[in-house]
Write a structure and sequence with these properties.
The chain folds into 2 domains: 7-83, Arc Repressor Mutant, subunit A; 87-260, GntR ligand-binding domain-like (Four Helix Bundle (Hemerythrin (Met), subunit A), Up-down Bundle), CATH 1.20.120.530. It contains 12 helices and 2 strands, in the order ααααββαααααααα. The model is unreliable at 11-17 (pLDDT under 50). A hairpin with a 3-residue loop joins β1 and β2 (80-83). By secondary structure, the protein is mostly helical.
């Protein structure tokens, strides 16, 4: 006797099978969220990525189109497909403008940064894998090199990279992306503050000692020590930024008086 399967069941079975392009979308989204694919990164060639994901090239193209429609990828003519900064930009851009227009917000921002980075350091010390520690070691070595060489221009990017490595070692997607957004918001203020510290060698050395304390506590898997070191670092930064603002104001006042003389 021939078994007849009702059409409705056949249709439901077809509908329940996920499209290969959807599986590829989910996988690429996961890599973007976890930071394996960062803003500006170029995707591998269509051929190699399709092979890696185990799908056909037409399915991969469909997945890329879906991610481009979400704003997560952008395809440049003759330049391949790149990850956008969509997740960071939508948070950072308006706050950057507000911070420039309302300097008093800086105190709130540093307070938030103290909470965020303290928790990031705590979780990183708890959760960091050997690969995370290897990345963190490399980030600290690069930071140590520019600080020892008194390289002001190189210190900004390496400072940001060090804090981002900690955030990603925390293995919390939101902490990773919020830290990246926050660093984008305060980039100009970090630059002015480092310029101020660079002019005061003792405080410049203090800054690097604080970075070293955070790094050592994380690699030794001491969560409380890591969190305390991270929070102490932001207290120092906060004090330093206040001093920078005061110095800038005194300079402007002096220049205005000079103009009146």
């Amino acid at each position: 006797m021939k078994l007849v399967i009702p059409l409705e069941i056949t249709m439901m079975q077809r509908l329940s099978v996920p499209r290969l392009s959807d599986s590829a979308v989910a996988e690429l989204e996961k890599r973007i969220l976890e930071g394996s694919l960062k803003p500006g990164d170029r995707l591998p060639s269509e051929r190699s990525l399709a092979l890696e994901l185990g799908i056909s090239r037409p399915s991969l193209r469909e997945a890329i189109q879906k991610l481009a429609a979400k704003g997560l990828l952008t395809t440049r003519h003759g330049g391949g497909t790149h990850v956008t900064d969509q997740l960071e930009a939508h948070f950072a851009d308006p706050w950057q403008q507000m911070l420039n227009g309302h300097p008093a917000l800086q105190s709130d921002l540093l307070e938030f940064r103290q909470m965020l980075e303290g928790q990031a350091a705590y979780l990183a010390a708890e959760r960091a894998t050997s690969a995370d520690i290897e990345r963190l070691d490399a980030a600290f070595a690069a930071l140590d090199k520019v600080y020892e060489g008194k390289d002001l221009s190189g210190s900004i990017d390496t400072d940001v990279a060090f804090h981002q490595a900690i955030a990603e070692a925390a293995h919390n997607v939101l902490i990773g992306h919020l830290t990246a957004s926050l660093m984008r918001v305060i980039h100009g203020h970090v630059s002015r503050n480092l310029d101020h510290l660079h002019a005061h060698p003792q405080r410049w050395d203090q800054l690097q000692s604080q970075h070293r304390a955070i790094w050592q506590a994380i690699r030794e898997h001491k969560p409380d020590a890591a969190a305390n070191a991270a929070r102490a670092h932001i207290v120092f930064v906060r004090q330093s930024m206040t001093e920078t603002a005061q110095e800038e104001e005194r300079h402007h006042v002096a220049m205005r008086r000079l103009g009146e003389a």
